[in-house]
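subagent[fold] <- orchestrator: predict structure for attached chain, return tokens only, no commentary.
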Amino acid sequence: MPNVPTRLILFLSSYAPLFLIIAVRGWKDSRFIAIGLAVAAVLSVVTLFVFLRLVHRLAPGKVAVSSVISRDGNAISYIVTYLLPFLAVNLNDPTDVISLGVVLFVIGLLYVNSNMIYTNPVLNIAGYHIFEIEDSNGKTTALICKRSYVQVGSQLDAISVGDYILLERK
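subagent[fold] -> orchestrator:
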């Protein structure tokens, strides 16, 4: 599967809570934009879980884990972006809406073009954990899985969902 669509799905779903916060805070200013943001939030989460369900049907490959780093702790740095809606953004003011759109677009580009997939509160809420693993061939990838601990030396059944992104199949 292509890497950019996978990262885009992960990005949009990771910001679903932020979209909902902005929608709630902007309800009085512009119901049209608030409803649009709420719909975007719901659709992004639904798309994520449909994507994960479809991927789980693919044949997994064996991955021998030679090193592991938990990436669940990266969420704290991510929380800063959730402060955006509390900076008094007025959804009736086109300047505020465009400014917020530009900020979210830049954050989206950074997310999609970097390894920010390590921070996705929706996956965390759904019980997934993200690890950075190195396999026996020296390839470093992000592993999305339900287990909270991955042991060095273990063999995993994992499905590639993009360049350097694996989903453990249990």
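orchestrator: received. Logging for downstream: The mean pLDDT is 82. The CA atoms of residues 5 and 162 lie 8 Å apart.
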